[in-house]
Design a protein that fits this description.
By secondary structure, the protein is of the alpha/beta class. It has one domain (about 5-100). The chain has helices at about 15-25, 50-65, 75-90; strands at about 5-10, 30-40, 70, 70-75, 95-100. Strand 3 (about 70) and strand 4 (about 70-75) form a beta hairpin.
């Protein structure tokens, strides 16, 4: 049975999501990722959502899948996990939900 991860986005930093995504794909066998933009939230800036999802996070995962993050080398045993994660992230979906409906 397919497993989905709904990831509520509240930070514009990609590092805040990488470990969660990696754990979910590796340990929980998640095969579908949904990034959720919380609109009108007092703690986030929704205008950064598209840049985070389409550029920053995707770029960080691409680097990890190639064995590097910023200037650090990634252990070889993790590279396969990040390759799998990058592929699954490439097929991600995005949703929006109004903060007031929580």
């Amino acid at each position: 049975m397919p497993r989905s991860l709904l990831l509520l986005v509240g930070s514009a930093r990609p590092g805040a999501y990488i470990n969660t995504l990696a754990y979910a794909v590796d340990q929980l066998e998640v095969d579908r990722i949904v990034m959720v933009n919380i609109l009108y939230a007092p703690f986030s800036n929704s205008s950064d959502f598209e840049e985070l999802v389409d550029e920053k996070l995707r770029g960080a995962l691409l680097g990890l899948s190639k064995g590097a993050y910023r200037s650090m080398a990634i252990p070889a045993e993790w590279v396969e996990l990040y390759k799998d994660l990058y592929v699954k992230y490439s097929y991600r979906h995005t949703e929006r939900i109004n903060y007031h409906f929580f």
